Known about the structure:
Blueprint: H1 14-48, H2 52-80, H3 82-85, H4 88-100, H5 106-132, H6 137-168, H7 173-179, H8 181-192, H9 199-204, H10 208-219, H11 239-270, H12 272-278, H13 284-310, H14 313-333, H15 339-352, H16 354-366, H17 373-401, H18 403-425, H19 434-438, H20 445-457
Helix pairs in contact: 1-2, 1-5, 1-6, 1-7, 1-8, 2-5, 2-17, 4-5, 4-8, 5-16, 5-17, 6-7, 6-13, 6-16, 11-16, 11-17, 11-18, 12-13, 13-15, 13-16, 14-15, 14-16, 14-18, 16-17, 17-18
Amino acid sequence: MSAHISVEDVPLSRFHRLLTVRSGGGSFVDGYVLSIIGIAMTKVSPALGLNAFWEGLIAASALIGIFFGGFLGGVLTDRLGRRLIYFVGPTLFILCSLAQFWVQSGEMLFLLRLLSGVAVGIEYPVATAFLVEFLPKKYRGPCLATLTILWFAGAATAYMTGEAILYFGGAEAWRITLASTAVIGLLLFLIRLGTPESPRWLISKGRHAEAEVVIRQVYGNDFSLKNLPAQSENKHLSFRSLLHSGYGKRMAFITIFWTCSVIPVFAVYAFAPKVLDALHLSGGWASYGSVAITLLFVIGCIIATRLVNTLGRRKLLLQSFLWSGLALALLGLLRDGPSPVILLLFGTYALFIGGAQVLQLVYPNEIFPTEIRAGAVGIGTSMSRIGAAIGTWLIPVSLQTIGIGATMYIAAGITAVGLIVSWFLAPETASRSLEDAASLSDERPETASARANLSKNNAW
């Protein structure tokens, strides 16, 4: 019977669940790494004698590192394989975190945080490519979307752990706080031991015998290469040539939608108290509002994870951009409104943007072939972080120069750009095999049938 079953149609197994934990652990560490510096900075600055310039540079260092790490991780993952690069991020997390315990200057801390950011950037393409190339198609969307939730879980853990260490750890506790990532990095390294190479990547390099061994190891001796959907073998096809062959439009879609979805989120997430204050919320409203917005970001991602298959990728993305953009526009229009109304609109934005957030890792892994999958994720990661860094940097300036109303209108405009680009370029990939979703031929009979069924079953 297995001779007729595609590996994309098998039930979710213990291996798939373990691989999700292995790859999701990278997202958890990423959230922890990027958030822990915010907790420690109040102690780091006086201890190292940092001025405002170095405070800002150290805060932005990880984002700079992600820019380079995304490109580097994508290229290396496609060229050298998923399994080898799978251990680069955890290794850098361990070494850089331990080194931060003995840091003596702002320059050294900047360098170590930069390298930690490189590790974060590497994680995005390798962890998601590894995961998507093993998962059955029914579980691709939800499992990839779960990685976004784990990022927020890592950030929340960083806040709780960091505060506890600083409270109980004494004068030098900030050093332990910064070094604490090494523990999680070590656990991540250990749980990834024993992970086999992706058979899809092996086939793309012409290594069919090794791919056969992996398939039998993962799915059982009754399975073989015949159970893996046919894919092209482009051992000598470069990333640039594939983009020119038609994937350039898809790369533009990924880059633009990803960037438009993260700019307002990073700005709001980083400066929620400042933005709420500009909207005339103070005291308990501002404090509880910041917590509520953070929680609603997580809830929005959880809801989107449940809808990514039933609603479909395209419709989820369009609805996410539409309603979150309207919430931002209304925040600009009603900037002097009552506090409950302001918080309701902010909460609406945080809730609905979850769809675009979880699709940041789903879409690029589905609509590109094995040869450039990791590279595409790497480019999307790098370019979106440029937008995030610029948006985060400009928020204080924008609030001071043009005011909160215009700032919210600009954020709504950025979201509208994401909506328009998605309307014209976003494909529907739910219920499609990985090879079919990555194909440039969108008019296959089975594809049209899948789309028609999805539309019929999930019509509003």
